[in-house]
Amino acid sequence: MPTRAAWQYLLILAAALFAAPSIAAPIVDAAAVKAAQARGAIVWDVRATPLYRKGHIPGAVSIGDAGTVLRNAVTEDFIETAQVEKILGNAGIDPAREVIVYADRGNPYAYFGRFALQYYGAQKVSVFHEGIEGWQEAGNAVETADAQRSAVALKLTPRPDLIASTEDVVARAKTGAVQIIDARTAGEYLGNDVRAIRGGHIPGALNIPYEQNWKDPETNAKMSRRQVPDNKGAGLASSDALKSLYAKLDPNKETVVYCQSGVRASETAAVLETLGFNKVKVYDSSWLGYAARLDAPAERETFFNVGAMNGKLASMQRKIDELERMIGELHSNHTAKAACPAGKVC
Q1: Taking the domain 163-208+246-303, which CATH number applies?
Q2: N or C, where is the chain less crowded by C-beta within 10 Å?
Q3: Residues near 198 by beta carbon (within 8 Å), at least 6 away in sequence
Q4: Average pLDDT over the chain, rounded to whole?
Q5: What gap in Å lies between CA 265 and CA 257, rounded to an integer?
């Protein structure tokens, strides 16, 4: 029979295990953010610097627009690991620590931040989906001064097992051994909106745009048309609604999610994790990488029309030139009138 000391040790061990789970919940609310901060968690605001300085969660650090800073501008893949180590390290963002990532409500770049940290070894990283708007709506204060954390020396080891490569997707898509979700718009999926060398989608992929994870998938469109006053519709849909959305998929089967370059896919991947999908991978290169493999089969395949694009650019340039000419004339007329004394003909 265990001794009293042994029982005490077991109780302490159990309390530690329950108090500090090894893997964080993929998506958390404002209360969980505050609790994490109390535990010493890092809060990372992935928005561009001007937005960060307009108001951010107190203590949240920034490296600027994470989607731009951490990715190659041409391929949209991660930059060299040594560069990532320096950028994150200088900001005090240590993937070995608990981290909460956020942006605007529903912004997929918050999920990209989570995915990036996981790729570099993080296990305790969550997204605050409601973002800065949800933080303020919960009655919490914001600050505008840049928050500073002590720099850390990082040695990061990428985890390619967490992502799907182009070679893997090409090979496995042909066999049906994996279920694939295309998180892009319907236009991209159908080949009507071509954003790479060619349009279309991976054979067998199920199109579920990432905005379908929201209470109102039309939120961004409605905001651009000023039909709604805020982005509350970008809040995460209910658990029942999400289960229904992905009801055709098997949570125990390997699931690959892709979009144009992996950002939107990372949001859907996190949602799937909350629903109990345990074999989810983000196809990081996504359609940019797949479309460039011209031997890779595609459904609804269309090709990028360079001539038509050049024509549109030339037309746009002519309009810009004409606008600049008109502005120049107005400026000249204004200058001439200003130089002419009142009551005189110049």
Answers
A1: 3.40.250.10
A2: N
A3: 291, 294, 298, 301, 302, 303, 304
A4: 90
A5: 5
